[in-house]
Input
Amino acid sequence: MADYRIISSDNHVIEPPDLWTNRIDAKFKSREPHVVRLPDGADRWFTDGIKGQGMFAGAQAGVRFDEPENLSTRFTFEEVRPGGYIPGEQIKDMDIDGIDVSILYPTVGLQLFCTVPDSELLSATFRAYNDWLAEFCEPFPDRLKGIAMVNVDDVQDGISELERSAKMGLAGAMITIYPQEDRPYDSPVYEPFWAAAQDLGMPLSLHITTNRPGPGQQYMDLDTVKASFLCNTDHWVRMSLADMIYSGVFERYPKLMVGSVEQELSWVPHFLDRLDYNYTQRAIGDTSYRFKGSSLPSDFYHSNVFLGFQEDALGIRDRDIIGVDSLLWGSDYPHQESTFPRSKEIIEEILVGCTEEEKAKIVGGNSARIYHL
Output
């Protein structure tokens, strides 16, 4: 493989069991995320009495290659890969895997969006996590770049946390992939938040499994989730991006960057076709927004949207339609579906038909531009 700078746009930390018990605001003591060891011997997170996910996601990086028969969903924290919660150990694993920089997302925190309907409690858990994440990245500021969690149920509170996260050196922020249904992302209530994110230079991520509770999007853990649900998880990111594009968010905030994370790529060509078709060929009624000049919805997708992916060969085949400048490869370390420790080998396989310039952008250049590295 050529000497590209490799940036994983989607690595993860595994939150230690004492993160929230040690850091949560006193007001929320006894309601914070905490670990319970179940009768079957596995650890499971609970928040405010609501069952969340287990430890499986961070316990088995690499197992799918060598021991796929041993993939499981039931583990204890002691079995989690240390790189998930010890920064120096993650650096060691990055060196093994040939990764120069990791953009870091949570693990437990992803599903707090779904499992914590109490907005005030959710914001408190996010503040505590962001403090911990900034400390996690601090020893290796050039190699570990954290993504804050921000709750936008209360937009002004979300802006305050976005500003605080930027001051702590976090590289971007993750908001719910799909907000409560009475407040979609085409609502004017979010205008100050979009403006703040643009002014702070903070890219916003829409990560899989971060829906707010609502009809048709209740939390489903991986012990009980249906295969049909997993096959259609890009539904919510398409809805949110379409709401933002059609309502002119990116026309008003041209430097705002919003990304789809861990939903792969191959849904995008059809999505782009439908964006433009419905804009040009149908009258949408009172909700219709018209762009200035001859701009099309797909133009704003190409200028303001980025896409994290892992191993989508179909998406790479259609990269000319999707847009090479929007593609950000990620390892998903240390989750069980991660490309670790074979990331370089897998990158070569999935990008085999790409030019050298395209490869350099996809494996690192685009991430460096979007996250101001």
In short: The two ends are 22 Å apart (CA to CA). The longest helix spans residues 119-137.
